[in-house]
Amino acid sequence: MTESSWTAFQLHRHDLQNYMQLVKAYLQLGKPEKALDAANQCAGWLTSLSRLQSQLSEDAGGARLLWTAATCSHLRVSLLNFSPVLDVSPLCEGIAWLEQQAAVHNSKYINAKLTHLPSNRTEEPLSNPAHPLSDDAETADHAKWQILIDGPDLDEWWSPSLAANVLQGVVVTAEIKTKMIHQGHTNG
């Protein structure tokens, strides 16, 4: 994402206004349960941004990553073991790409958990066999990551060919595709 903080704030404000308009419209239509659902979705997104901010430092990379997530109302991003010396460009691009996919496919939200793996790690990869949308990956700067993706309606549109795009600039192994095929996530 190359938007300035100014543009990012405008996008963030627009997304918040959309949520509030949904709540208002559902209340006017006499559908309080749908209004509550929209309010809960907005609250979940804002809570995920608060958690993400607590995981980041106030440097340029942290600010860029936070503003990227703040413009992605369909995503709930969390990071583990994040280091401020890491290049955030692949993460920002991947987050923006996931947001585009969620919007195109009308997904309520996607949880994206990204864990930075220490370079001196010698044990087995963290890929979770019980989680079909998980894999280990490595960026061009040799930072290693575990990627976990889930959401309430991913089965309706996610396909193995999309997995390679989760983090642009990241080399994702074929293992995630194999897991998805074996667990029935082959919608494309």
From TrEMBL:
Residues 7-37 form the SpoOB alpha-helical domain. GO terms for molecular function: phosphorelay sensor kinase activity. SUPFAM superfamilies: Sporulation response regulatory protein Spo0B. The keyword Magnesium does not apply. Signal peptide: none annotated. It comes from the Bacteria. Keywords: Kinase, Phosphoprotein, Transferase. This is SpoOB alpha-helical domain-containing protein. It comes from Alicyclobacillus ferrooxydans.
